[in-house]
């Protein structure tokens, strides 16, 4: 008796149309790809006259062949393929749910980081506005001080001129 890890043969025992375990295997004669009977017949019935795997032309359902040997292999590997598919689908759904939760957490972290960046940018803008207002106030005060000093100097010069004229 030989033991086989199902993961190592899973790709070869999975239908490329329904992604389930192959059931009533049909082989496409031109390219030898395998599919579930129902899947490939429906595919061809919908006028898709090509292999879903390699796109090779498949003229009709007559190009399909039974593969009882492969059916036996699948049956030996997966004693109850339907139950196996259900378990695998449930597992895939749980993995997807976990992934969805992780994605949601990641999105929440991204939103939080974006919110923090916006807050930091707003705080920086406010700080820059305050600094600009302070700079303008200092400039205004210096301008007023300079204007007052200039007015005082003009007044002194005028007083000196008047005093000089009065002595003369």
Automatic annotation (TrEMBL):
Extent of Basic and acidic residues compositional bias: 99-145, 153-168
An annotated Gene Ontology molecular function: zinc ion binding
Keywords: Metal-binding, Zinc, Zinc-finger
Gene3D superfamilies, alphabetized: Zinc/RING finger domain, C3HC4 (zinc finger)
Residue ranges annotated for the RING-type domain, each copy included: 15-55
Disordered, as annotated region: 95-168
Highest taxon, organism lineage: Eukaryota
InterPro entries referenced in this protein's UniProt entry, alphabetically: RING1A/B, Znf_RING, Znf_RING/FYVE/PHD, Znf_RING_CS
Xref: Pfam families: zf-C3HC4_2 (PF13923)
PROSITE patterns, sorted: ZF_RING_1, ZF_RING_2
UniProt cross-references to SMART domains, sorted A to Z: RING (SM00184)
Descriptive protein name: RING-type domain-containing protein
Organism: Micromonas pusilla (Picoplanktonic green alga)
Classification lineage: Eukaryota, Viridiplantae, Chlorophyta, Mamiellophyceae, Mamiellales
């Amino acid at each position: 008796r030989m033991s086989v890890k199902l993961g190592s043969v899973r790709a070869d025992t999975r239908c490329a149309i329904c992604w389930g375990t192959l059931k009533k295997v049909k082989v496409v004669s031109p390219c030898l790809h395998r599919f579930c009977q129902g899947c490939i017949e429906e595919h061809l019935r919908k006028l898709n006259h090509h292999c879903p795997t390699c796109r090779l032309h498949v003229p009709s359902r007559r190009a399909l062949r039974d593969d009882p040997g492969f059916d036996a292999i699948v049956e030996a590997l997966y004693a109850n393929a339907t139950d196996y598919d259900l378990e695998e689908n449930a597992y895939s759904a749980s993995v997807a749910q976990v992934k969805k939760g992780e994605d949601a957490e990641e999105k929440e972290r991204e939103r939080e980081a974006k919110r923090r960046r916006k807050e930091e940018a707003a705080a920086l803008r406010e700080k820059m506005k305050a600094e600009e207002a302070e700079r303008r106030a200092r400039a205004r005060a210096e301008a007023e001080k300079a204007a007052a000093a200039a007015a005082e100097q003009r007044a002194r010069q005028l007083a000196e001129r008047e005093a000089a004229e009065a002595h003369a």
